[in-house]
C-alpha cells in the first residue's frame, strides 16, 4: 500500500479539496491519503466532510497539536501512515490519475527504495502560464525534484524542524546513505506545481526556476499535443492555462 501524505491548513481549503479529489481518482488501487493539520476542530470537520464525498478512497484526517513547523508536521504524517510506501502529496498542487502508478512502477522496475520525478509542470496562477520544467540538467545525483518523493516508509529519514526547505536535508541524507533511487523521466504531466502568493518560497523564486529550467520553444512544440491531452484529464479541471516556453536568452 502507498500512503500519500498531505499537510494542510486553513486558507488552503479549496486547493486541498482539489488535491484530495486527485487522490481519489488515482488508478493505483491500494492506497490511503493521510491529511494532517494543526488547526481547529471545525477545519477538521470540513476536511472530513470532503473525504466522505469520495466514498471508499481511504482518506484519513488527523488533527495534531498546533504551532508545529512544516518539518514536524511531515514527521507526524509519516507516523500516521499505514502503507509500506509513502508519497508526498502537497495540498496546493495537482496530480494526474496515473501519478502514483507511474512512480510506483518505476520504483519497482529499479528495485529502488525511492523514486522522484525529473520533470513537472509549473503553473503560475497570476498569469495563467504553464511551463514544463526539467531538473535533469542539475548535477547528478541531485537531478530530480525533491518534493516529488515516493519511498519505502522505513527508509525515510526524519524531517528537520524547519518551516520550509525541509526536503533538502532529507534528500541529502538519503543520498549519504546510498539508497537506490529511481529517477522518473518524461512524466511531467503527472504533477502540476502551483505557484501562488502563499507558497513557502516567493513567486520570484519560482520565476527564476521557470527562466532557467523550463524547456525551450522547439521541445515544447514537440510535446504540446501530448501535454494538452494529459492535462485535460484532470478532474476537477485545471484552471485555464497556456503552455509557455523558456524565455529567450536562457540556456537549458
TrEMBL record:
Keywords: Transferase. GO terms for molecular function: transferase activity. SUPFAM superfamilies: Nucleotide-diphospho-sugar transferases. Residues 20-128 form the Glycosyltransferase 2-like domain. It holds the Pfam family Glycos_transf_2. The keyword Zinc does not apply. This is Glycosyltransferase family 2 protein.
Amino acid at each position: 500500500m502507498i500512503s500519500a501524505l498531505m499537510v494542510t491548513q486553513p486558507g488552503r481549503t479549496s486547493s486541498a479539496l482539489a488535491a484530495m479529489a486527485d487522490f481519489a481518482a488515482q488508478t493505483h488501487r491500494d492506497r490511503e491519503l493521510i491529511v494532517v493539520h494543526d488547526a481547529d476542530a471545525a477545519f477538521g470537520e470540513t476536511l472530513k466532510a470532503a473525504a466522505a464525498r469520495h466514498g471508499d478512497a481511504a482518506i484519513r484526517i488527523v488533527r495534531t497539536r498546533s504551532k508545529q513547523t512544516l518539518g514536524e508536521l511531515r514527521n507526524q504524517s509519516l507516523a500516521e501512515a499505514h502503507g509500506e510506501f509513502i508519497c508526498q502529496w502537497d495540498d496546493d498542487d495537482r496530480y494526474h490519475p496515473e501519478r502514483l502508478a507511474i512512480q510506483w512502477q518505476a520504483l519497482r522496475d529499479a528495485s529502488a527504495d525511492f523514486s522522484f520525478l525529473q520533470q513537472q509542470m509549473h503553473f503560475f496562477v497570476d498569469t495563467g502560464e504553464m511551463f514544463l520544467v526539467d531538473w535533469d540538467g542539475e548535477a547528478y545525483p541531485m537531478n530530480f525534484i525533491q518534493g516529488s518523493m515516493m519511498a519505502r516508509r522505513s527508509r525515510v529519514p526524519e524531517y528537520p524542524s524547519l518551516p520550509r526547505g525541509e526536503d533538502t536535508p532529507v534528500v541529502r541524507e538519503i543520498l549519504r546513505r546510498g539508497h537506490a533511487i529511481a529517477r522518473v523521466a518524461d512524466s511531467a504531466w503527472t504533477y502540476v506545481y502551483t505557484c501562488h502568493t502563499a507558497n513557502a518560497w516567493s513567486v520570484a523564486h519560482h520565476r527564476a526556476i521557470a527562466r532557467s529550467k523550463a524547456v525551450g520553444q522547439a521541445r515544447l512544440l514537440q510535446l504540446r499535443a501530448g501535454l494538452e491531452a494529459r492535462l485535460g484529464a484532470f478532474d476537477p479541471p485545471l484552471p485555464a492555462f497556456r503552455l509557455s516556453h523558456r524565455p529567450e536568452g536562457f540556456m537549458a
